Amino acid sequence: MIHFPQECTNGSGSLCHQQTILVTGGAGFIGSHTTLQLLGEGYKVVVIDSLDNSVEESVKRVADLAGENGHNLYFFRVDLRDKDALEVVFSMTKFDAVIHFAGLKAVAESVAKPLFYYRNNMIGTINLLEVMAEHGCKKLVFSSSATVYGQPSSVPCTEDLPLSTTNPYGRTKLFVEEIARDLHIADPEWKIILLRYFNPVGAHPSGLIGEDPRGVPNNLMPFLQQVAVGRRKELTVFGTDYPTKDGTGVRDYIHVMDLATGHIAAVRKLFTPKEIGCTAYNLGTGKGTTVLEIVAAFERASGKKIPLRYADRRPGDCSEIYASTEKAERELQWKAVYTIDDMCRDQWNWASKNPWGYRHPDLANGNRT
Ligand code: NAD
Ligand code: UFG
């Protein structure tokens, strides 16, 4: 099905051509923030999203936040598993590059429903790559993940560490990375940047867009936020006996605004005449923070006391992971600038203004239909 809201057309109902980026999954958390920054940089952006884990309201808010540039934003409700619908989108306009965020990302759900995850994340991506190739669009930025480092043998993780992963979701990231490398070997015209995100958190400083997961959040920050606004009773801290400074797990949290600028840097690199092949970059801050440090920072930002329950380690979790940022700094000229306090401030700003996310309270806990 294709959805084409009036406010996202140029008035004539057709798309006019200038440098145009296709953003798959652009209604989601990272995609919406990146779309806003692309618009701010003067790109024309076509978002496609199945709205499986997002709502159209996020795209509307991005258009509003972009002001004048909001006219350069188009939205189609398309599922990447529907290749015919993708064909229609590609036949309407010529894309200069694609940023591919679309995918399902809940680790536990991927363990319970592996075929669903493989179909969505793998078949969806293969459809996209095939249609891109047919239409001569061979520039891609792909949302990979630090999950491809598995239980890292050393930290900070450099991009050349051996890759492995522990669950079906992680394998979809690793397999797509391998497909991308094979594609570039078979056809060196492809330029592909694999961005391995560490732990994206925070929200746009306006508090108008942010992360709004469907159902019970899997990740620390959205769960913490829902406790702070009273939607959940307490935060469970998974593991207190890790070999870290306070016994809780260490991660590299990165502000979603920094991630978005990382994508702009990657897109710019795709448009340089240099041969870039298929190459991976970490997007992280290079700094590790424990669960209890995040809780303390969030309490400072929100002025709320977060009730905690201590529990055993969560299966599959590593003790400590954070990025080496050298390659991205050197080759993308990009570096994260936001601190943990900035991340918690902006997360709380979003949470306090939108305690039920984009949705009505009755729908906010809904499962996927
Ligand atoms: P998100 O769920 O907010 O956004 C993903 C979007 O993709 C959603 O809007 C969803 O509706 C859409 N989508 C899913 N399947 C689709 C399909 N078949 N066709 C079209 N649209 C589809 O997630 P996010 O946090 O913004 O993550 C974006 C990407 O980054 C994902 O690929 C995710 O795996 C990856 N990533 C996220 C994290 C994280 O912790 N947020 C970490 C590493 C990597
Ligand atoms: N944690 C809790 N309680 C919770 C949720 C998380 O204590 O309710 C802890 C975890 O045990 C871990 C830390 O908070 O120590 C961060 O956990 P997240 O689930 O927020 O993030 P992960 O690093 O485990 O995984 C996330 C994504 C993966 C992705 C990875 C790297 O879920 O898909 O970041 O990008 F691969």
From TrEMBL:
InterPro entries: NAD(P)-bd_dom, NAD(P)-bd_dom_sf, UDP_G4E. Keywords: Carbohydrate metabolism, Isomerase, NAD. It catalyses: UDP-alpha-D-glucose = UDP-alpha-D-galactose. Its EC number is 5.1.3.-. GO terms for biological process: galactose metabolic process. GO terms for molecular function: UDP-glucose 4-epimerase activity. Residues 22-346 form the NAD(P)-binding domain. Pathway: Carbohydrate metabolism; galactose metabolism. The keyword Kinase does not apply. Its cofactor is NAD(+). Signal peptide: none annotated. One of its GO terms (cellular component) is cytosol. It comes from the Eukaryota. Belongs to the NAD(P)-dependent epimerase/dehydratase family. This is UDP-glucose 4-epimerase.
